[in-house]
Amino acid sequence: MRRILVLFALALLALPGAAAAQRATLEISGATFRPYPIAVANPLATGDAVAPAEELQEALTFDLMASGLFDVVPRSAFLADPREPATADRIVWSRWSDVGAEGLVKVEVQPGPNGLSATFRLFDVATHREDLVKSYEGARADARRLAHRFADDLVRHFTGEPGVFSTRIAFVKRGATARDVWVADWDGRNAAPVSARGGGMALLPSWSPDGKSVLYTLYKRSAKYPNGKPELWRVDVDSGRTSLVLARGDQTMGGVYSPDGSKIAFTVTENTNSEIWVANADGSGAKKITNSPAIDTSPTWSPDGSKIAFVSDRHGTPQIFVMNADGSNVERLTFAGNYNQSPVWSPRGDEIVFTARDERLAFDVFVIKVADKSIRRITQGQGNNEGATWAPNGRMLLFTSDRNGKKELFVSSADGNVQHRIGVAGSEAMVQPAWGPLPQ
Prior knowledge:
Elements: E1 3-7, H1 10-13, H2 18-21, E2 25-29, E3 36-40, H3 50-67, E4 70-72, H4 93-97, E5 103-110, E6 116-124, E7 129-138, H5 143-159, E8 168-174, E9 179-185, E10 192-193, E11 200-207, E12 213-220, E13 229-236, E14 242-246, E15 251-257, E16 263-270, E17 273-280, E18 287-288, E19 296-301, E20 307-312, E21 319-324, E22 331-332, E23 340-345, E24 351-357, E25 363-369, E26 375-377, E27 385-390, E28 396-401, E29 408-413, E30 419-422, E31 429-435
Helix pairs in contact: 3-5
């Protein structure tokens, strides 16, 4: 669990006029969690800007809530006049302090040269000080993306770390007869298919480090393989161009890029035996790096590229193992439970998230620290939760849950205390999410 500490430059307070110059910062550390109370005021807009302004406020509010860093004051609790101006000298500060807000965001939205112009202002309620001003331009359809940009700026302003709200996610839409890879904004909006639809069943998407392409497993149908033979394919996300990367043995699947994008790790099955392989990113130079009669599968790279975690049942049940990237020095990581799968290494390098089946035969998300093998549980008692992936800053998790009756995407803070459903349009099941990198 992480605690948000509001640190003040106390030495500056002794200096004349220092109160106006100093500002609060947020340091994410410690054992006690306290989110920062913040209000996102009703946006100030008129005419054609009203509808996108409302969408912008909803997106910003969701971003801040889902981050786990902020305690967002509900709109229904506001006491201030909805038409209150966005300048410090005209804000009735007691109306915001009375609802518990320590930070206040004011948004002004108006038509702009590209369709929409939005100005965001962050105020400190106690000091009445304006701490941050950002203005963005975009099309009316980009209202949510403008909000994501400011949410990223807020996270960086308070913590010094990058926000993840301008990133994209990939996932599989699972219909009655089809499986396709889709890409969407991090909150599930602007979703579109990217895999070769109708050409087979697409699964297990994985982003390239530059965010330009997605590697996925395609069950390619043919006269010889009417049900499809798993191969590794790549799609350029912007152009939609797809290409075959690798096809070895009976099955080639579950490809993941190395952190520098130069290599991929994947699973090859030959005569019912599955092993971990590594190849260059273009599919050349493929080399087997495990050699066991057991099933070895689901590789994931450490963020420095020196190690690979994977799943093996070489001791009787599926467990998480770690080895050097060349296959040497294999070490068992999990010992609790008898069915552990789908590891994904944290971008921070200290933890691995995985799926485990508990004694009730329910699947849940767990995180293990690589150094001491201590485990914390992220989900419990809310249906089946599986296939988790990390946000690129290592502060959030994205996974599949059927807690509402069908498989949907949920986002969680890294400690599991804050969880929200991601709204993707459509009635199909959403599974196997992969969180894309920070924009470059």
